[in-house]
Design a protein that fits this description.
The chain has 170 residues and is of the alpha+beta class. It has helices at 11-18, 28-36, 82-96, 111-119, 148-152; strands spanning 2-5, 40-41, 43-47, 50-59, 65-73, 101-106, 123-128, 138-144.
Length: 170
């Protein structure tokens, strides 16, 4: 298995992979837009020469939040760690882009995906009614992500008060 960024030559395979979703599929035009103009990453997993899975992550200027918009693995390639690998790649890239949180929506009946996300440290933060094309609600999930060097960094002194005077000593 090989992870790499998607390119315009992958569009047919990405659109075909979208057929694995029951609803809310990304179109050819949407993939092309995201690849050319969108603030997005689309990592793909190649297995045996074809694309076995992909993720779509959206970024917005001025925020430290990434949105995992889509993660799909072809049914013939499931249970091989592809989704977990894609999720780890998404998180690593979000950290590299200085994001501090990843958010996503998932169908409540997608137990496999919910299990994947929970095992990766995501938590349910709410629900959105009538979210999907078929009227199904979505579970909102999120995970705070931090760069490894931040975890190992020594504590920093607190910022100085706005007046410029030092903080009083307790």
């Amino acid at each position: 298995m090989k992870l790499r960024p998607a390119n315009a030559g992958d569009i047919d395979a990405l659109v075909k992979l979208e057929q694995c979703f029951p609803s809310d599929r990304l179109s050819r035009a949407r993939f092309l837009y995201l690849l050319r103009h969108g603030h997005a990453d689309i990592p793909v997993c190649e297995d045996g020469g074809g694309i076995a899975g992909n993720a779509v992550v959206l970024y917005r200027r001025g925020t430290e939040i990434a949105r995992l918009y889509s993660l799909v693995v072809h049914p013939d390639h499931r249970r091989r760690g592809i989704a977990r690998g894609l999720l780890q790649a998404v998180e690593a890239e979000a950290i590299a882009r200085r994001c501090r949180e990843i958010r996503l929506e998932v169908r409540p009946d997608n137990i496999t995906a919910i299990h994947l996300y929970r095992n990766a440290g995501y938590r349910i933060t709410g629900k959105i009614g009538d979210f999907y094309d078929d009227g199904t609600e979505a579970l909102k999930m999120s995970k705070r992500i931090v760069a490894q060097e931040e975890l190992n960094a020594p504590c920093r002194p607190p910022p100085q008060p706005a007046s410029g005077a030092p903080w009083p000593t307790p």
